[in-house]
């Protein structure tokens, strides 16, 4: 039987795999606040960026370190949308646009109820939150459960489930910043990235999709074969994104979790693979991280971590070509993302 989840304090919970890999979770933001993984010599390091206290997460909430993002991840153009015959107005917290569910009661900023579970095969922590009708401007009461499981195969599995009492947009994701050399060990520009995608959604200078979907072939966005993140990033420094902050359209059917991306650190040998049921993946190279002191006085700056965010199509509410992110009351939103940890 796996080790039972351990409650560390009022907010944090610990999961430990048989291999010794461990994950710390927080009920604030239903987030991942620590993950210790070994390098090729067996030395453990915390490979996700974060802070030591819940207050520090609140003080630096614009970074979204490790959090569950919702109700709608990414940006909504003009901070409004039409659903049925009604227009809903949201907070403009990213220029004139709406970002990651809002500035005050988005899913990363609220406290979730935690439930620890253990079976003969695995242990997990489930976080539950009920978002009332019109919280952050979104229609419908939305009941959401996010469950983290650390498996004997060294996989951190995240399962999402949400139900609403009326039609509402739902696009949940996870926003960990990975640095496989260890948080605070420098940038991720030498990390190698592979993304299972032939196309990406084109964005404007405000990082809003134009509606076009284009091939990655012959562009700086082509990571179909592993390539150092920093090898071509300079070509994007003069754009609004300042680097990678782009949505990839993942290849293949995804009724079950399928391979989406792989990041590796050649120096340490640590590898994380992303498997997901979601149709898209946002790749963000941490371009907007300002100098910040993190866990155990680790120093973070621009490109100190990379985010791999499985999601639905961004700004789908304004792009009929994109798959809809509207959840109807008769349906259930379900999604699974797996972060598979290995060493080479």
What does this structure look like?
Strands 11-12-13-14-30-24-23-18-21 form a nine-stranded antiparallel β-sheet, with no helix packed on it. Strands 17-28-25-22-19-20 form a six-stranded antiparallel β-sheet, with no helix packed on it. It has a five-stranded antiparallel β-sheet with strand order 1-2-3-4-5, with no helix packed on it. The chain is mostly beta strands and 344 residues long. The chain has a single domain, classed as Beta-galactosidase, Chain A, domain 5 (Distorted Sandwich). It is globular, with a radius of gyration of 19 Å. A hairpin with a 4-residue loop joins strand 1 and strand 2. The model has no long low-confidence stretch (mean pLDDT 97).
Topology, please?
Elements: E1 6-7, E2 12-16, E3 22-26, E4 31-38, E5 44-46, H1 54-59, E6 68-69, E7 75-76, E8 80-83, E9 86-89, E10 98-99, E11 113-118, E12 123-131, E13 142-150, E14 155-164, E15 168-169, E16 173-174, E17 177-178, E18 192-195, E19 197-203, E20 209-215, E21 227-228, E22 245-250, E23 258-264, E24 270-276, E25 280-284, E26 292-293, E27 299-300, E28 306-311, E29 326-327, E30 333-343
Antiparallel strand pairs: 1-2, 2-3, 3-4, 4-5, 6-16, 7-10, 8-9, 11-12, 12-13, 13-14, 14-30, 15-29, 17-28, 18-21, 18-23, 19-20, 19-22, 22-25, 23-24, 24-30, 25-28, 26-27
Features:
30 strands; single chain; 344 residues; six-stranded antiparallel beta sheet; globular; Beta-galactosidase, Chain A, domain 5; 1 helix; mainly beta; nine-stranded antiparallel beta sheet
